[in-house]
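Exercise 3.2. Students should predict the tertiary structure of the chain below and write it as structure tokens, then compare their answer with the key that follows.

Predict this chain's 3D structure.
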Amino acid sequence: EIAEFKDELRSLDKTKQCDAVKKVIAAMTVGKDVSMLFPDVVNCMQTSNLELKKLVYLYLINYAKSQPELAIMAVNTFVKDSQDPNPLIRALAVRTMGCIRVERITEYLCDPLMKCMRDDDPYVRKTAAICVAKLFDINPELVEDRGFLDGLKELLGDSNPMVVANAVASLMEISSRSPKAGVFAISPQVLFKLLSALNECTEWGQVFILDALASYNSRDSREAESIVERVAPRLSHANCAIVLSAVKVLMKQLDLITSPDMQASLCKKMAPPLVTLLSTEPEMQYVALRNIALIVQKRPEILQHEVKVFFCKYNDPTYVKMEKLEIIIALVNDRNVDQVLLELKEYATEVDVDFVRKAVRCIGRCAVMLERAAQKCIAVLLELISTKVNYVTQEAVVVIMHIFRRYPNRYESVIADLCDNLDTLDEPDAKAAMIWIIGEYASRIDNAEELLESFLETFPEEPPNVQLQLLTATVKLFLKKPTEGPQNMIQLVLSNATQETDNPDLRDRAFVYWRLLSTDPEAAKEVVLAEKPVISDDARSIEASLLNELLSNMGTLASVYHKPPESFVSRARYPVSSGTGSVAVDYGAMSGPESSSGGLVGDLLGGDVTPATAPAGNAAPPTDLMGDLMGLDVGAPAAVAAAPPMATPSGADMLGDLLGGGAPAAPAAPA
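Answer key:
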């Protein structure tokens, strides 16, 4: 087959040559090694046939890394093509040279690239602008020394808007990778040029320019208003990416506008395009909802009248419904809470269990956020409990516990309804919530002792969170009703928690309670029955500085993950062939394994990648953590290791120490 390819490639018939190169490219695409045909394919470059030239260039890009010595053969043709009368060929030559990551070829690329940046044809100039970013990827010093950055900045004033857009894209890419600050700083003059080019660009050109404008800090309110007026028409664009990029610019400038009327007008303009994003496919809806969640947290007034738009449809996927619920809760207020509660109550009767649970939790969050609506929320929750649907009842119990923590001593009348459903509780969170309620209001529940006893029967088998709540609730019951029954219960619980459990948290808490009760019951009351701080709803609130960072990355994965980019993207290390091997080029100071000559794919597919290790001279000695934790002398692990093993006291001895006269003096009661 290779011999046939060679014969056809050496044919004088250009049609045969073209067909042969197509076959070679097809073989290359399916993974066959056709690198031995490199000289024959390169010989086909000397043609005016644009189709054939494109195919040869595609082959060259693929095999230049593995055949850097042979790739040099093509340099003269590249340089010659960069001066061809046909602008398509000039642009193709420069684009291909930029894609070939061979260091020796980049030296020959500089002069043709500089000429193409000043070419008469805008197609060639816009291709050259992107090629500068590729060259920076291979050799950053070369780009800076040869004045390519200044050339890109000159292209920002180009008469063709696509050239401007590509220059912006290239400068932003270089700026993000360069360790130097201020590679791309937008001045007022550049700002005017970008705004002028915005209306005439292609869709992605507009996205590049808008993203650049989002990083510009206006000098005053007047300039911010001017930018807003020029960018606002982009909100009505059909492309979702342009809409989100425009919103990103407006959100940035909104902080600098001082006129309340202008702010209100702008917020009103931003609502319809955001609502329109929800009429797209579910996947795009999800991206839009994640971005809207950030916008609403920063400025809820933008969509405060649009809560109905976020009501779930019967055919919405679960992931879209979940996001809509979050936004509904972010937008709920005293004016629309009745409408929202009615909707949430409806959701709680759906068949999707996860969605129903989230809807019930949202009812509780409404109560925690809006004091005036708390009574209505309680009424809805009691209605849901009366349906006797198991998972609804369990979620409602957890939610009511949170409402009790937000409004202590206010809605105890519902406890009787909760106690009626005690037997249906089988989930750890629901059990723990019910036990907390019984312990907290033990003095007002006549049969609190019996209720807790029903849970104590299965104490050893319960999960840790239920055991911890049972322990605390029993102590509260004893402190509020120090009679014989609770006393026996607390003896049993403390004995189980200190002797029968392997959970250190449970055991330590039991010892603390035992020591408190045995030395100073009054101090125990002040600690265990202390007034608790009320809770607030901050389930999805994002810290202010992180929120601003996420808003500045709106329309990217960061705004979908709600994480800063550096937490899930690391700077890539690309291998650059130098003729004698591969050199790994790193543009962020990111730690990571050196790339081998196999490149990134080799690393991903199981190349020999070893993590960087600290120099042997600086290596810290291994720390005996268990020795430190179990021993008495934390500062001297060696001494601990050498010490003979201590005799472990039995459970009875430990309890005797705690309850007997050998106990240390009681700590002073907290003020």
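Discussion points: The longest strand covers residues 573-577. The radius of gyration is 35 Å.
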